[in-house]
Amino acid sequence: MTVPADPRGVTTVADRVVQKIAGRAVTEVPAAGGAARRVLGIALGDDELQDHPVVDAHVDGGVVTVDVEMSVTYPEPVADVAGAVRRRVDERVSSLTGLRVAQVDIRVTSLVTGTPATRRVE
């Protein structure tokens, strides 16, 4: 995106900058976490809360669209966490870049427990 800063020049915000801001905003929401990269729908690794979410952003003029892949802590309500993430991403991207966030699409790829599962052997 390019906006006139003043008569001396313009400011351009790259897609990658918005991606980083949005990714950081996701991690600021309790119960939201990272997602493993996927190829043909198959996870390459595990979905972990401490990992980074997968974020894609597109800047078109002064408008941004963001796609987020993330995990949610079980048993938190998925819709509530996704709504909180959507609001936080909108707030952070808007305040830090001056761009208008038109859409934040969220894909929850996994529910993760706060503690690793243990197997019981009898």
Question: How many β-strand stretches?
Answer: 8
The DSSP helix count reads 2
Main sheet specs:
4 strands, mixed
Oligomerization state: single chain
Percent of residues in helices: 25-40%
- Judging by the overall fold, what is the CATH architecture? 2-Layer Sandwich
Between the first and last Cα atoms, what is the distance in angstroms? 61 Å
General form: elongated
Average predicted confidence as pLDDT: 84
**Can you write the helix and strand succession as a string?**
EEHEEEEEHE
Radius of gyration: 17 Å
Q: Pick out the low-confidence regions.
A: none
Describe this structure in words.
With 122 residues, the chain is an alpha+beta fold. It has one domain (10-112): Alpha-Beta Plaits (2-Layer Sandwich), CATH 3.30.70. It has two helices and eight strands. It has helices at 15-27, 78-97; strands at 2-6, 9-12, 32-33, 37-39, 42-44, 54-60, 63-73, 100-112. Strands 3, 6, 7 and 8 form a four-stranded mixed β-sheet that branches. Strands 1-2 form a two-stranded antiparallel ribbon. Strands 4-5 form a two-stranded antiparallel ribbon. A hairpin with a 2-residue loop joins strand 4 and strand 5 (42-44). Helix 1 (15-27) packs across helix 2 (78-97). The longest helix is centred in the last third of the chain and has 20 residues, at 78-97. It is elongated and about 55 Å long. The model has no long low-confidence stretch (mean pLDDT 84).
